[in-house]
């Protein structure tokens, strides 16, 4: 880690020397509207904070300067940025021609500005027609372009504009791994692509805990409570204006019927926007007691409003991108955002062609709370972007290079651009210890933390949060991008809700516990929870013997006996989340009592607790120790002593282990006859002691058609943590929208 940091500093030093020691990078940031300023402002603040490296020039154009859209240039001034140039570039009109004329007007005015500023690099954001004019002007004037949010996919003409800007840009900052892959597929130079995350997330992820009630009251009224109002933001779709106007009309009708206080923001400057405003006025939205219609809300206040809303509805990219950071329910209408990556908080209504469809979506989504999503960023985008800017060598040739197919299999950036490994936070709640680890996509445990598991619910939850926060902070230092949190715990778990329903007796005060909500709220990350046996099966499926196997069973042999069943590549949970409680298969009607209250369970014979019980009986009767064994007076008798005694020829210890192995083998035979897996994996500290006994019982007791099953010992060093990580890594990397 120290080596890579020093290497990075050395490269920055070399770049500064190449560019001239006294030369500061002159950066021009051009902003066209309220939406792109929310993404550019964090970068601008970062540039302004490092005057020893950068000079900042701000150019304002587009709808910022139009009164109908709130004169939003004022918020730039309020943020204490000096605006170098204001360009009036919007041609008033209500059709596509007005957008074309606006691009033409910007192209006429921009050359003079760029000639005066002479920037080393221009930062352009997104996919608006104004941004296309900026990128075209800069490219033709041999000015380097850094494009923010390239590679993403959505509906309408925005897709074409975004990709056109990508081809003009020299450097790219993208927000998601998929966007990075798209840029590479578009033949952009791998070394000039930075996966940084969305800059607005740097502000979003620290915003939710600020005072928000005064903001809600100011925009929606004194009587409005959190989670009891709606934010609506809908724009015209320029490739189908008529349909988008109709959809907006249906949306307003549904909102009126739904009868909740609603904040409606005016649409973007696009063909069709005036008609949408006329629809609002025709329906009396500006004077309706349940509605507040506004041209603009400052970004700091807007994020507080969406963070605490009962729902957001419309077709704005903000809904599918930024709002996921808060877990606020979103209804995405129409095709404007088709192809965007979204969190589970987004409900799509692609064909929003009736009021009833939209109303039903409101009924489904309003008031829900989803896990926070960090698909588009982790709050550390700006430091990465600034480092990326410092690494630019102005003496390199300006002409772009394209990397035509075949594309390299190993798609990565230079380490100096902060290469990050997709990783998970894994939590293992055992009877004795509480462990948290950073686990990479390849199953490498990058960092591990261990503490004694507290005895009370309050202390345990507080320690989990503390350890997770520390691990998440450390992840940045070890170049790991945390995708989510996976938790492995004993007992019966509802993985859909992230709730521990009933705990084992080994973990006290651990029933009816919601783990997902407090951890997701604290870390702004999605959280998955499952039973430790199921997690062991997931670990085998992703990293162990179960990889690529359609049907297999994992048995954990440790303090207790547990397991997981994978059928047709999917984990089986059962109707009440009680599937694969393999330790409680009864193999004898009059066997020893189990901790579950029954008799004759596998766990009562073969678990570490059962072996310890039998070892104590032998020790109390002075029948445990044999020649070659010794115990200190204060030493606690354990299963390990029983195993050691058996190895040294203690016939009674051997008999106990033989009975335990037979009980486990009979349980496995029952499993084979029930689900017919092709593989049985024994995991845990006792697995090596039982594997031969299990195979012998299968040969004696099983039907001939299942005797060929493979029985193997797991080769995973830490299946509990790897399984918890698999909850995250499997879900976040296989979702397709």
TrEMBL record:
Q: What is its main location?
A: cytoplasm
Domain of life (superkingdom): Eukaryota
Keyword Transmembrane helix attributed: no
Which InterPro entries would you find in this protein's record? ATPase_NBD, ROK, UDP-GlcNAc_Epase, UDP_GlcNAc_Epimerase_2_dom
One Gene Ontology biological process? UDP-N-acetylglucosamine metabolic process
Keyword tags: Allosteric enzyme, ATP-binding, Cytoplasm, Hydrolase, Kinase, Metal-binding, Multifunctional enzyme, Nucleotide-binding, Phosphoprotein, Transferase, Zinc
Known EC number(s)? 2.7.1.60, 3.2.1.183
In the UniProt record, does the keyword Transferase occur?
yes
Q: Subunit structure of this entry?
A: Homodimer. Homotetramer. Homohexamer. The hexameric form exhibits both enzyme activities, whereas the dimeric form only catalyzes the phosphorylation of N-acyl-D-mannosamine.
Catalytic site: 532
Q: Spell out the coiled coil positions from the record.
A: none
Q: Which reaction does it catalyse?
A: UDP-N-acetyl-alpha-D-glucosamine + H2O = aldehydo-N-acetyl-D-mannosamine + UDP + H(+); an N-acyl-D-mannosamine + ATP = an N-acyl-D-mannosamine 6-phosphate + ADP + H(+)
Q: Which residue ranges does the record assign to the UDP-N-acetylglucosamine 2-epimerase domain? A: 53-390
This chain's protein is named: Bifunctional UDP-N-acetylglucosamine 2-epimerase/N-acetylmannosamine kinase
Its localization reads:
Cytoplasm, Cytosol
Q: Name one GO cellular component term.
A: cytosol
Q: Which family does it belong to?
A: In the N-terminal section; belongs to the UDP-N-acetylglucosamine 2-epimerase family.
**Organism ancestry:** Eukaryota, Metazoa, Chordata, Craniata, Vertebrata
The molecular function terms of the Gene Ontology recorded here are: ATP binding; hydrolase activity, hydrolyzing O-glycosyl compounds; metal ion binding; N-acylmannosamine kinase activity; UDP-N-acetylglucosamine 2-epimerase activity
Q: What pathway annotation does it carry?
A: Amino-sugar metabolism; N-acetylneuraminate biosynthesis
Q: Where does an N-acyl-D-mannosamine bind?
A: 492, 504, 532, 581, 584, 603
Q: Which residues bind Zn(2+)?
A: 584, 594, 596, 601
The gene behind this protein is Gne
């Amino acid at each position: 880690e120290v080596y890579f940091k020093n290497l990075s500093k050395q490269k920055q030093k070399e770049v500064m020397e190449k560019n001239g020691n006294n030369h500061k990078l002159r950066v021009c940031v051009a902003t066209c509207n309220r939406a792109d300023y929310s993404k550019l402002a964090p970068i601008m603040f970062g540039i302004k904070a490092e005057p020893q490296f950068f000079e900042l020039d701000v150019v304002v154009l587009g709808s910022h300067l139009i009164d109908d859209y709130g004169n939003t240039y004022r918020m730039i001034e309020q943020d204490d940025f000096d605006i170098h140039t204001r360009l009036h570039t919007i041609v008033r009109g209500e059709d596509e021609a007005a957008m074309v004329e606006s691009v033409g007007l910007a192209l006429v005015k921009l050359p003079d500005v760029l000639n005066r500023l002479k920037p080393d690099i221009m930062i352009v954001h997104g996919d608006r027609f104004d941004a296309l004019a900026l990128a075209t002007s800069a490219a033709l004037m041999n000015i380097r372009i850094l494009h923010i949010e390239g590679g993403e996919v959505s509906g309408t003409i925005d897709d074409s504009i975004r990709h056109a800007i990508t081809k003009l840009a020299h450097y790219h900052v993208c927000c998601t791994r998929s966007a990075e892959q798209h840029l590479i597929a578009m033949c952009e130079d791998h070394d000039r692509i930075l996966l940084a995350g969305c800059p607005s997330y740097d502000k979003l992820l620290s915003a939710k805990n600020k005072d928000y009630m005064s903001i809600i009251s100011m925009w929606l009224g004194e009587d409005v409570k959190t989670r009891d109002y709606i934010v609506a933001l809908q724009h015209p779709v320029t490739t189908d204006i008529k349909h988008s106007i109709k959809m907006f009309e249906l949306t307003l009708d549904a909102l009126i019927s739904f009868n909740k206080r609603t904040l409606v923001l005016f649409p973007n400057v696009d063909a069709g926007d005036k008609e949408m405003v006329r629809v609002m006025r025709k329906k009396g939205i500006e004077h309706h007691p349940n509605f507040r219609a506004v041209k603009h809300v400052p970004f700091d206040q807007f994020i507080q409003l969406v963070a605490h809303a009962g729902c957001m509805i419309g077709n704005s990219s903000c809904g599918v991108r930024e709002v996921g950071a808060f877990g606020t329910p979103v209804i995405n209408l129409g095709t404007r955002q088709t192809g965007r990556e979204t969190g589970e908080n987004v409900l799509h209504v692609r064909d929003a062609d009736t009021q009833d469809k939209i109303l039903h979506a409101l009924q489904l989504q309003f008031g829900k709370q989803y896990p926070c999503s960090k698909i588009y960023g982790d709050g550390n985008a700006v430091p990465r972007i600034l480092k990326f800017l410092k690494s630019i060598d102005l003496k390199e040739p300006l002409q772009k290079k394209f990397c035509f197919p075949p594309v390299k299999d190993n798609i990565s950036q230079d380490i100096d651009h902060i290469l990050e490994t997709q990783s998970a936070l894994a939590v293992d709640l055992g009877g004795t210890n509480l462990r948290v680890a950073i686990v990479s996509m390849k199953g490498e445990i990058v960092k591990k933390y261990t503490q004694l598991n507290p005895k009370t619910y309050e202390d345990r939850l507080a320690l989990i949060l503390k350890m997770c926060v520390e691990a998440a902070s450390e992840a940045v230092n070890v170049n790991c991008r945390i995708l989510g949190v996976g938790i492995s715990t004993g007992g019966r778990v509802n993985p859909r809700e992230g709730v521990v329903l009933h705990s084992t007796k080994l973990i006290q005060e651990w029933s009816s516990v919601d783990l997902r909500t407090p951890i997701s709220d604290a870390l702004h990350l999605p959280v998955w929870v499952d039973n430790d046996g199921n997690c062991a099966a997931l670990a085998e499926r992703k990293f162990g013997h179960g990889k690529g196997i359609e049907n297999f069973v994992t048995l954990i042999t440790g303090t207790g006996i547990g397991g997981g069943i994978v059928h047709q590549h999917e984990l089986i949970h059962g109707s009440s989340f009680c599937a694969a409680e393999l330790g409680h298969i009864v193999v004898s009607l009059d066997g020893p009592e189990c901790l579950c209250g029954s008799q004759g369970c596998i766990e009562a014979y073969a678990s570490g607790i059962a072996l310890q019980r039998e070892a104590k009986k032998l020790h109390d009767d002075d029948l445990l120790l044999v020649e070659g064994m010794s115990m200190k007076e204060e030493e606690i008798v354990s299963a390990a002593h029983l195993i050691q005694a058996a190895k040294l020829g203690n016939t009674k210890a051997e008999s106990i282990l033989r009975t335990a192995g037979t009980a486990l083998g009979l349980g496995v035979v029952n499993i084979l006859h029930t689900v017919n897996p092709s593989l049985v994996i024994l995991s845990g500290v006792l697995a090596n002691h039982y594997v031969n006994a299990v195979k012998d019982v299968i040969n004696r007791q099983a039907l001939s058609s299942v005797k060929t099953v493979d029985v193997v010992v797991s080769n995973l060093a830490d299946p509990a943590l790897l399984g918890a990580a698999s909850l995250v890594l499997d879900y976040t990397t296989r979702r397709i929208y």
